[in-house]
Amino acid sequence: MDIVLFLIGISCLFRYNQAWVLSIIFILCSTYLQLNIKDPLFNNVLFVHNVNDIGIIIYVLFFFKILFTRGAEFTGSLQNAVTVFLLFLVLNGIYDILFNDSSAIDVVKFLRGRLLLTAVYIVPRLYVDEVKGSFRQVAIITVFVCSLLIFQTLTSIEIVKFRFDEGRGIKPPITAIIFTIFYLFNYWNISKIKSYTASLICFLTIALNLKMTYAVSVLLITFVFILFRSSLEMNKKVIAVLSVVIISFVFLGISDKFCNRLTSVVQETNTISAGKTSGNFSYRILHAKERFDYIIKSPATAVRGIGYISESNYHKKTFRLGCWNEERNRVDQLDNGDIMWSNIFVRVGLLGCFFYIVLFGYLIRKFYEERYMSDYYTLWFSYLLITLLFTSFGNESMWYGYFFLYPITEYFALNTENYFVYDT
Fold first, then answer.
1. Long-range pairs, 295-298, Cβ under 8 A, ≥24
2. Its domain of life (predicted)?
């Protein structure tokens, strides 16, 4: 399937359908929206490869096509924040090769995951319709995928082979969070029935999988949006917040499994101070803490982390917590798919963490400052804030360049009066 998407993407690239090119880049670089697809039609067709590498190839072609035909903007507040972060990553990689004996291949593999951050230089040269159209396309695709997951879960009819966790079911796409919220508040001004139905479909995949991190993220984003929504009077905000609380309790009362999951999370907080894991929540907190405690022991690792060495080339048993790797007969020391903070501490240390937070914080601040102009800004502010402060402990997508593709593109599209977005 990725080869088919690659060919479609190349065709769209030369047919000047850049909206679909952006959508295909995002889908491939996120490895099918982080879906755990086990179907052979979606992986390693024709030859062994990574799906996200196919997306990166399209992105490189897309970047240079826009650069040579429309130009780019390499200076600006957001561009400067990205440049500083990328410069640190590159210099850190060079240090890795020269002084840590890391292979150039390991460094390149790490840096390629952040390549999509360079989209900030060409996005101001995209048509507004291309930017908004791509975001809408991914939203529709997410609703379709979520509908498929709901159908397969409820009927046990397997159309596409996904990884199925016993007692949990199929993991929802990472975009289920953002589009649950954006459809709930009718970001695209479509009919309310369509918008609410799409929001419900996205959220049902989260509920059916008992994905607590995603569910709480949706709840927190809703709270923040209501509280900071400038067009709402205070009494209406209070009523809206109380309504969300009541609906949440009703949902917990209906879903015993969700209620039990939430109760266990609350109980796990008692074991964290003792350094003991009693479930996913305590495991994630202590996993990140173990990495943080390790890197601050040495000035070198505190500044730049352990580096970009791959898991297969790292032969030390430094950490106690991690996913068990049968091939290496140990827990994975560097890689994990759930905890962004663990990755950032290990890979780039406190200095890299600082530059990352500056970049992320800049986007949050700009959307916050513009929230009086439109609820769209408030939505993006709420989503990014909760993603950084909460969702990042249960997912690592925000550590990769593809995560920033739509916050950056939508920021420039929403700021057409203040920023030059290529148009005719």
1. 295/345, 295/346, 295/349, 295/350, 296/350
2. Bacteria
Q: What are phi and psi of 359, to 5 degrees?
A: -65, -50
- For residue range 158-171, list pLDDT tens digits in order: 888 887 776 677 88
Residue 330 φ/ψ, nearest 5 degrees: -165, 170
Centre a 10 Å sphere on the Cβ of residue 48 and count the other Cβ atoms it contains.
Answer: 7
CA 116 – CA 401 distance, rounded (Å): 5
* Cβ burial, residue 85 (10 Å; 0-12/13-18/19+): buried
Phi, psi of 211 (to 5 degrees): -80, 90
What is residue 310's three-state secondary structure?
A: coil
CA distance 196 to 268: 34
Question: What does the alpha-carbon distance between residue 162 and residue 181 come to, in Å, rounded to a whole number?
Answer: 25
Pairing between β-strand 330-331 and β-strand 324-325 as defined by DSSP bridges: antiparallel
Q: The tokens of 402 are what?
A: 């593809």
How far is 16 from 34, CA to CA, in rounded Å?
28
Nearest-angstrom CA–CA distance, 343 and 102: 17
Q: Are 141 and 339 in contact (CB under 8 A)?
A: no
What is the C-alpha separation between 95 and 82, in angstroms, rounded? 20
What kind and span of H or E run contains 151? helix 128-155
What is the DSSP secondary structure assignment for residue 159, as one 8-state letter? S
Is the Cα dihedral 182, 185, 186, 191 positive or negative?
positive
| Other Cβ atoms within 10 Å of 55 Cβ, number | 25
Question: How many C-beta atoms surround the C-beta of residue 321 within 10 A?
Answer: 19
In this prediction the pTM is: 0.90
CA angle at 147 for the pair 145 and 151, rounded to the nearest 5°: 115
Per residue in 218-266, pLDDT (tens digit) is 989 998 998 888 666 666 656 666 666 666 656 555 555 666 666 665 5
**CB contact at 8 A, 211 and 170:** no
Of the candidates 123, 112, 129, 160, the residue with the CA atom closest to the CA atom of residue 20: 129
- Asked whether the beta carbons of 225 and 379 are under 8 A apart, the reply is yes
Task: Give the whole-angstrom CA distance, residue 227 versus residue 180.
Answer: 18
Q: Token digits for 248? A: 């949440």
Measured between alpha carbons, how far is residue 376 from residues 23, 125, 345 in Å?
A: 20, 21, 32
What's the rounded Cα separation, in Å, for the pair 332 and 375?
42
Q: Please give the structure tokens belonging to residue 341.
A: 């903070």
Q: How far apart are CA 25 and CA 400, in angstroms?
A: 13
Answer whether 78's CB lies under 8 Å from 120's CB.
Answer: yes
